[in-house]
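User: Please fill in residues for this 292-position structure.
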């Protein structure tokens, strides 16, 4: 009787090997009675894992280019092996572009945003974290990279200057609007603030803080979103922190300035109107330069 049970046990193990759910290393040396006890728990846990896997494996990602493999969700764990363009099944993910998949090397990670959604990713979560950014979400990353693509901030020099200036102006993403009340902009006709309350309503919004009724109106026209004018700074800070920054950058011909080999001082002068925070902007630029 024990002989028959023993054969059934190993037959079941072989079947689960084929499913890819039981590692050969999980089978250890033990006497027959111990093996029967192990088999009961192993098959029970494996069956539950199979159910979980079936429910999760509905997500597939199409890789449109050669994709690197990683041992963990970190660029530091990059392997020499790559995947050719294909469709892969996801078994886990971080929510920020990292996906765990099964490969001939076992379970490995890939970093991909080629999942049928808009945009190409130039800047990753790891890039921002190295710059001191926190509270990074997949939506925030997508907004950033769509902004870069929309406003052609796609060369290393443009990206380096843009990220270093935005990191300083926003406190590494902590501030999406100007901290000042905006009262100092009240009545500033050069900014288009001709109505009472314009100073506060249209104070600096977004990561590069577009300021004044005139600039908000231009941005609203560009986006085709009149809520920008109706709600002002709070709406821009919440909805368009990156896009408003990209719009300001593009509208002020910052790409052309970067392409001429501008220094951090020259870019800062254009962004700030002076040299406030120049030393920190330089530190950010030097750090970004190690990444791009």
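Assistant: Residues filled in for all 292 positions:
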């Amino acid at each position: 009787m024990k002989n028959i049970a023993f054969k059934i046990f190993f037959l079941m193990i072989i079947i689960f090997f084929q499913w890819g759910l039981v590692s050969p290393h999980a089978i250890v040396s033990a006497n027959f009675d111990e093996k029967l006890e192990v088999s009961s728990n192993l098959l029970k846990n494996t069956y539950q894992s199979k159910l979980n896997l079936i429910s999760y494996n509905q997500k597939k990602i199409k890789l449109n280019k050669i994709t690197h493999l990683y041992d963990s969700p970190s660029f530091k764990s990059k392997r020499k092996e790559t995947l050719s363009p294909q469709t892969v099944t996801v078994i886990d993910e971080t929510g920020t572009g990292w996906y765990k998949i099964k490969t001939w090397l076992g379970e490995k990670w890939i970093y991909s945003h080629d999942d049928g959604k808009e945009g190409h990713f130039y800047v990753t979560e790891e890039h921002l974290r190295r710059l001191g950014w926190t509270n990074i979400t997949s939506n925030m990353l997508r907004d950033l990279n769509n902004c870069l693509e929309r406003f052609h901030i796609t060369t290393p020099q443009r990206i380096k200057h843009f990220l270093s200036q935005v990191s300083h102006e926003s406190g590494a993403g902590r501030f999406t609007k100007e901290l000042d009340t905006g009262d100092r902009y009240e009545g500033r006709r050069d900014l288009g603030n001709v109505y009472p309350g314009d100073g506060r309503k249209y104070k600096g919004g977004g990561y590069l803080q577009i300021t004044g009724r005139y600039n908000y109106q231009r941005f609203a026209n560009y986006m085709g979103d009149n809520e920008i004018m109706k709600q002002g700074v709070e709406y821009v800070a919440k909805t368009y922190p990156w896009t408003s920054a990209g719009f300001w950058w593009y509208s002020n011909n910052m790409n052309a300035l970067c392409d001429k080999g501008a220094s951090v001082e020259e870019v800062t002068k254009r962004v700030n109107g002076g040299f406030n925070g120049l030393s920190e902007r330089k530190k950010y630029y030097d750090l970004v330069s190690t990444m791009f």
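For context: The chain is about 50% helix and 10% strand.
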